[in-house]
Known about the structure:
With about 675 residues, the protein is α/β, with parallel strands linked by helices. It contains 23 helices and 26 strands. The strands form 5 sheets. An 8-stranded mixed beta sheet has the order 6-13-7-12-11-8-10-9, sandwiched between helices. Strands 14-22-21-15-20-19 form a 6-stranded parallel beta sheet, with helices on both faces. The longest helix is centred in the last third of the chain and has 17 residues, at about 505-520. The two termini are about 25 Å apart.
Amino acid sequence: MLQTAVREGYRRFLADPRPGPVAKVVLDHPTRDVHYDYLVPPNLSPSVRVGSLVWVPSRNRRSRGWVVGFSEEIVAGLKQILSLGAPFPLLSLSQVRLAAAAAEYYLTDIRRFLRRMTPPTSLRSATSNTALNGRPFLEVAGGDRSTYELDRETSEKNEAASWLRDALVTQGYEIVDTNPVHEEGMDCDDLEVILVRHPPGHPPVSVFSEFFQRLRAGGQSSLVALGSAVTADAKQMLAALGSDYVFIDTKAPTKVRAANWSTASSPGCVIAGDRAVVLQRAAPLGAVCVLNEASPSHIEDRIPYYNARTVALLRARIERCSTILAAPWPSYDARASRTRYIQPGRDVRKALFPKVVVVDRSKEVPEPGHIAPFSARLVRNVVGKGGRAVLFVTKKGEYRSQRCTDCWFTMERDSYTRCPRCGSERLRLAGPGVAAIEDEARRLFPGFSVGHVVKDGSGTPGSAAGASASIVVATEAALWRLDRVQLVVVVSFESLVGLVSFDAWHRTARILYDLCALLVRGQRKDYRKYDDEVPGAIAIQTYHSDHAVLQAFAQDDENLLLDRDLVARKAEWLPPYSRAVLVESPDETGKALIDEFAERLASVDRANSRLEIAGPHDDGKHRRALVLHDGSVSLWEPVSALRKAAETKGARVRVEVDPDASYRQL
């Protein structure tokens, strides 16, 4: 499907890249057409190229736009380009192609990606393109080329990728040939995609760093998407790179971003940053690395919504470069896209994996409270010796379970009308949040400091609660705000795995591995002094100790989970065996538009393709429809019509491709 996005993006958005008398310009404001034609004045002809930022007349005013192609056909009445936004093309040819492919894949406007790629306006005063490209731009992005495919030599890249695989094997990793995921899922069979599963908290940053330096020695640049620079894995990567990298910070002042952009545009740079770094200009590009690729931090939360992993794979297909995807628990999309799967050997896993304790509460003597007696003893054992324990709970939300008030047995919500243990009908909602667990911890552990860390910022490091508490009640915010942890207690495994989403199992496994990183984050020497009951351990409280996710995690055998989860996904034709598009609206007008959208898709010719629609369905205040397709049917026209209708009628309609959480009840 990535190949389809690239092909359709070229067809839909891009014209001939060779300079001509008529320029195809995408305007930086909503328009009915994809691009408009403008004449190139003779005085600007030597400078206007694909990727140039230009100012053109539009609707009786000056508008900014990007040149995406040229044409030899001159039509009467065409307006001329007024001026250049910079004396050299700010975007490379590959960036424009990437914007077209990403816009096609994510069913959005190409201008949204072009805007993200455009550097700060302080570069308008620059006068030399040689400093940015190392050679005249004509040799990089056009000239006499007549094909859309880049013809860069790939032998040096393949040699570097082979070295990377051999280096990882030397470090104790092993190459796995079997792939349980359908390899056509992301359509990357002809790409050099290396998927590395590493121990939690221990990415092979030294090997990656040397790989980037080898590419740099050959004059090739590398992009390293960290997700968030505050995570421990990102800090390890930056420390391994030393000072030989350029850091792209989208929140930095304009002058700083402009200077970093200019430096990063030179050949042979290692460019690191957040998820937006995959859009950064880099020529020639040798590799794209996405660290902890399954992390939600790689998902853009503003329009255009995109995932750094998918954009990296699109860019790799366009520029014919290597892609490295690394994570403690890889996503299914990453597994579907890989050509080389490398995982740590048994000796590496044994040395770098913390102890896992399953606390089976179904066999306990019923007692009030949410913290099991065994878990409480573990906490006292650790904090009594000066260590730190984390009580992990899910994010705030509605209750997902219920509890018997007579015997305190916990069961799924709405699944029982009476307790299966004692038969009592006195049931109440269970699944407490941070505040309830914090109050219980204060009662159970008098004399020890108790705090909390949550996403809204309360309890962040620097406050008494987050920085000095021995017992911390935390949500996923603890993953990047805490360190020096010796024990993690997952208060309720069911609250993680019981989410109404086909991603619930995979998400639970990812969170459990991320929690392990809290324990092994450069602190293993400290852990060894806790030589009593559970040194450096993660304790998981559950009523379903035989669950596939728990068994796979406790035994560190991913096949125990993949064999069940992927079989179910394939039977229901869920991602990664299909691509998902979620459409939702809280407005009455938007709800009617979604109904029309579903009816339009129902009439699509499916003779040679597969397309299924779940919904429309009302879920609370929203009306949603989930579209599953095989990539052969283009959804561009119906989604564009839906967006235009919503804009005309003032309705709020959101279209999300590869939604992070989809709805099984649809």
